[in-house]
Amino acid sequence: MRRLLGPAGLLLALATSVAAAADKTIPMPPDHAYATLKPGPGVEVTRQQCVSCHSTDYIVMQPRGDAKQWDGVVTKMIKVFGAPVNDQDAKTIVEYLATQYGN
Ligand code: HEC
Predict the structure, then answer these.
(1) Position in ligand 1 atom list of the atom nearest CA 46
(2) Ligand 1 within 6 A of 81 CB?
(3) Are 70 and 98 in contact (CB under 8 A)?
(4) Would you kindly state where each structural domain of the chain is located, as residue ranges?
(5) What is the pTM of this model?
(6) For the chain, which terminal residue's Cβ has fewer other Cβ atoms within 10 angstroms, N or C?
(7) Ligand 1, atom 31, residue with closest C-alpha
(8) Dist. CA 67–CA 98, nearest whole Å
């Protein structure tokens, strides 16, 4: 009996499904109004990078803080929790947070 899917076929199927998954966008359910980030430079990047694991209410309910404090939060998200945020975006996000949610 001939096998339908040899190891090569299986690999191909896997690779295809991985490629398909990369194209997939997952629409997030609307967040509650309370969690809406204040408008300002960097708000788009912050929304994109900071909403994939938890609601942005984690951000808006934090005590106000300066850039140093927000840098600590963003660094923790990246180093401890594995947030895939590059250096440039991290800088933009810290500036945004320190301006809109600063002292
Ligand atoms: C990879 C997942 C992930 C991403 C992306 C992420 N976070 Fe978090 N965040 C977490 C986890 C996990 C916690 C801790 C949750 C808990 O303690 O219940 C957390 C908690 C927080 C808290 C609560 C205070 C604290 O220090 O625990 C804040 C504020 C926060 N995140 C801000 C951000 C910001 C700003 C971004 C965007 C740069 C971000 N998060 C992106 C995983 C993530």
Answers:
(1) 37
(2) yes
(3) yes
(4) 30-100
(5) 0.80
(6) N
(7) 58
(8) 5
- Cβ atoms within 10 Å, residue 70: 23
Picking from 17, 19, 81, 20, the residue whose alpha carbon sits closest to that of residue 49 is 81
How far is the C-alpha of 31 from the C-alpha of 54, rounded, in Å?
10
Q: Is the domain defined by 30-100 classed in CATH 1.10.760.10?
A: yes
Q: Is 56 in the pocket of ligand 1 (CB under 6 A)?
A: no
For 9, the token pair is: 């076929």
- Structure confidence by residue, pLDDT tens digits, 51-98: 989 999 999 999 999 999 999 999 999 999 999 999 999 999 999 999
Alpha-carbon distance of 62 to 65, in angstroms, equals 8
Instruction: Give the chain's radius of gyration (CA, Å).
Output: 19
CA of residue 37 to ligand 1 center, whole Å: 15
